[in-house]
């Protein structure tokens, strides 16, 4: 019976199995691993008289009468009268005429629910006939995530049928010494207790074991990838310290301490024949591009080329312009590749900047020693797979991933599993922290009027972004839309300044032309959708308005905010919610008072969860049933166990395959 199809269970035919697929349940083990998300204790039986006082609870009563009644509106009400030694009570159910077949006069049932607020009737209670072993009531009752055609009650009955078969279906392969050291119960016990808990201590013990398994599975993936990395070779690129120091002196700005540290860590990694796999996680505007540029320069000094891959054409062009200017008098051939055209060969070490078009170019320079991928999670699944293939050969280039998406340390370990991490927390010294204000929707007009006035007072030397979540009005989503609001604002409050609209439906040519005009200050205020979230660098942009701000996650709001204040002038960000509630105000207030992307991301993660903040498919964050992805302590604990298992046991696949996950 080990992991057979769910259709081997009585009352599960093709129709039910199709419903179960919506819950990712295909096998008997999948069904047992469908864990309750909450419990209700219906084990305390109270009398009918107590129920009338308490207004809710579980009673054990004999059925005196039951019948269906048709109302004038042709609706069916099922009425029953039940009694116990303390008295009797009327029960009503709506539109459940079949109950007269299930509940018979003279039989004893458990009923659980609430009294009606409008009458003294017991309204729509759950029910179960009294029997030797209860499935639904008179116990700690589990409740499950449901789908169309599948209820918790139905799931309980099918899982109950599997109860005696748990030892045959669930195979625990976790070493005994690990169980004892971490005070864990066997897996088959954990699965039984999670579904058939006698008390809440059972649930706690079961959840502890299941959470451990989930995190251990992640930890084994991390440690196995690290071992795999050690089996590969990369070119040893020595640190050219004097040349690097001389190059730093030519920069028009001073590097921050964090940038210096990151450069040292990267150059140290590249100095070995084992491939570097490092994440450079830096807040928006913290100067990651120059760090990658110096790594590329160091590679070129040893004759190696570098490939920098970014998710958008706008960002590719921006990086290209920055790096071409940086290395204009150096012996480096800087090229931009945003189409599938072949890379031009060169006798010099090359620095190729491009989009995913590079993935379809089979002729990357043979001497490629470093690959840099910016915002890797923004590439599609297939593209990320192709990027990974660059690392699949035994002899591979060093690999650096950059992101401005602030990710808390637990998620960083999980998403970028086999990578070492460099953080850039400090921004360049000449950058002033952006002042952020939460604007009441009623003060919206006043806000726009003051922005227009400021732009005019500075003689159009300061520029503004206005961000919207949608391109067009949607009947389903009540939010400000860029097209309509652009027309309204540009013709009223912004009628005396130059405006333009930018959105994702435009062609690359149109987008680039608008951004070029904005950068050249031919446009005062740019209205845009989230297309500007990454990679738009306009030094004179000092003002941002984010409309319907509640529709964005805080990490995304922070990305928007990072588009302004990239020069030495004071920048201002105004967040205007379209709808307000205490929860929305709390989130946006926190955002307006905190400039650190990492703090904002941590707050958002704790309040909304990783799925809402970062998404699951795009980032590769695993969906956990019991454990919390933010449980850093458990992750560290299980990583030690993973290392022990990898060092001690040979049947690692069997151990990992049989973990709860």
Examine the coordinates and then state which fold CATH places here, giving the name of the CATH topology of the largest domain.
Rossmann fold
- Compute the average pLDDT: 87
State the end-to-end distance: 19 Å
Q: Extract low-pLDDT stretches.
A: 475-479
Task: Give the domain tally.
Answer: 5
State the total count of DSSP E strands: 20
**Assigned CATH superfamily of the largest domain:** P-loop containing nucleotide triphosphate hydrolases
Radius of gyration: 31 Å
**Main sheet properties:** 7 strands, parallel
Shape: globular
What report would you give on this structure?
Helices cover 38% and strands 19% of the residues. The protein is built from 24 helices and 20 strands. The strands form 4 sheets. The chain has a 7-stranded parallel beta sheet with strand order 10-11-9-12-13-8-14. A hairpin with a 5-residue loop joins strand 2 and strand 3.
Break the fold down into its secondary structure elements and pairings.
Layout: H1 14-21, H2 28-32, E1 38-41, H3 48-54, E2 56-70, E3 76-84, E4 87-94, H4 99-102, E5 108-115, E6 122-129, E7 140-143, H5 152-162, H6 166-169, H7 176-181, H8 187-195, H9 200-230, H10 241-249, H11 257-270, E8 277-282, H12 288-301, E9 305-309, H13 313-326, E10 333-337, E11 350-354, E12 368-374, H14 381-389, E13 398-403, H15 409-415, E14 420-424, E15 435-438, H16 444-457, E16 463-467, H17 482-491, E17 499-502, H18 508-519, E18 525-528, E19 541-547, H19 554-561, E20 572-576, H20 582-593, H21 597-608, H22 610-614, H23 632-648, H24 652-657
Helix pairs in contact: 8-9, 9-23, 11-12, 19-21
């Amino acid at each position: 019976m080990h992991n057979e199809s769910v259709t081997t269970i009585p009352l599960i035919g093709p129709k039910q199995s199709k419903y179960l697929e919506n819950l990712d349940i295909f096998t008997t083990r999948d069904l047992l691993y469908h864990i309750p998300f909450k419990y209700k204790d219906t084990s305390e039986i109270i009398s009918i008289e107590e129920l009338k006082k308490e207004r809710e609870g579980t009673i054990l009563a004999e059925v005196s009468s039951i019948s269906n009644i048709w109302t004038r509106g042709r609706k069916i009400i099922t009425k029953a009268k039940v009694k116990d030694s303390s008295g009797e009570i009327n029960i009503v159910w709506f539109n459940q005429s079949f109950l007269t077949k299930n509940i018979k006069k003279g039989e004893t049932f458990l009923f659980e629910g609430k009294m009606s607020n409008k009458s003294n009737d017991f309204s729509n209670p759950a029910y179960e006939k009294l029997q030797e072993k209860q499935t639904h009531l008179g116990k700690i009752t589990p409740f499950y995530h449901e789908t169309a055609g599948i209820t918790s009650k139905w799931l309980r009955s099918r899982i109950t049928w599997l109860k005696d078969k748990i030892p045959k279906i669930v195979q625990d392969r976790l070493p005994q010494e690990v169980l004892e050291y971490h005070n864990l119960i066997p897996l088959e016990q954990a699965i039984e207790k999670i579904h058939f808990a006698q008390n809440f201590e059972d649930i706690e013990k079961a959840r502890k074991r299941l959470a451990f398994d989930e995190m251990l599975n992640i930890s084994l993936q991390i440690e196995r990838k690290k071992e795999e990395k050690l089996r590969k070779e990369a070119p040893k690129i020595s640190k050219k310290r004097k040349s690097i120091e001389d190059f730093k002196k030519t920069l028009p700005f001073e590097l921050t301490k964090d940038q210096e540290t990151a450069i040292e860590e990267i150059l140290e990694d590249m100095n070995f024949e084992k491939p570097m796999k490092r994440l450079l996680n830096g807040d928006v505007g913290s100067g990651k591009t120059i760090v990658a540029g110096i790594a590329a320069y160091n590679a070129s000094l040893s004759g190696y080329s570098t490939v920098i891959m970014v998710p958008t054409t706008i960002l590719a062009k921006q990086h290209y312009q920055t790096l071409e200017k940086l290395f204009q008098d150096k012996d480096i051939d800087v090229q931009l590749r945003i189409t599938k055209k072949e890379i031009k060969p060169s006798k010099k070490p090359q620095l190729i900047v491009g989009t995913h078009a590079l993935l379809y170019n089979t002729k990357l320079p043979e001497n490629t020693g470093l690959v840099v991928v910016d915002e890797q999670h923004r590439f599609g699944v297939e593209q990320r797979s192709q990027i990974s293939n660059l690392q699949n050969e035994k002899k591979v280039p060093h690999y650096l991933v950059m992101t401005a998406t602030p990710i808390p340390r637990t998620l960083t370990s999980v998403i970028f599993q086999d990578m070492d991490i460099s953080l850039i927390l400090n921004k360049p010294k000449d950058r002033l922290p952006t002042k952020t204000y939460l604007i009441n929707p009623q003060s919206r007009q006043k806000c726009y009027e003051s922005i227009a006035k400021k732009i005019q007072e500075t003689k159009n030397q300061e520029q503004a972004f206005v961000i919207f979540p949608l391109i067009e009005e949607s009947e389903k989503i009540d939010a400000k839309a860029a097209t309509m609001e652009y027309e309204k604002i540009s013709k009223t409050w912004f009628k005396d300044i130059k405006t333009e609209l930018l959105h994702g439906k435009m062609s690359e040519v149109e987008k680039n032309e608008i951004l070029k005009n904005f950068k050249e200050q031919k446009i005062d205020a740019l209205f845009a959708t989230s297309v500007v979230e990454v990679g738009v660098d306009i030094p004179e942009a000092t003002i941002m308005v984010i409309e319907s701000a509640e529709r964005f996650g805080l990490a995304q709001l922070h990305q928007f905010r990072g588009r302004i204040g990239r020069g030495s002038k004071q920048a201002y960000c105004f967040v205007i919610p379209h709808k307000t509630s205490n929860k929305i105000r709390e989130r946006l207030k926190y955002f307006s008072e905190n400039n650190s992307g990492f703090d904002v991301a941590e707050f958002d993660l704790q309040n909304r969860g990783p799925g809402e903040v970062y998404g699951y498919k795009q980032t590769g964050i695993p969906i956990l049933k019991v454990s919390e992805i933010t449980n850093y302590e458990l992750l560290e604990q299980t990583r030690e166990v993973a290392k022990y298992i990898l060092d001690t046991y040979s049947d690692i696949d069997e151990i990992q395959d049989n973990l709860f996950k």
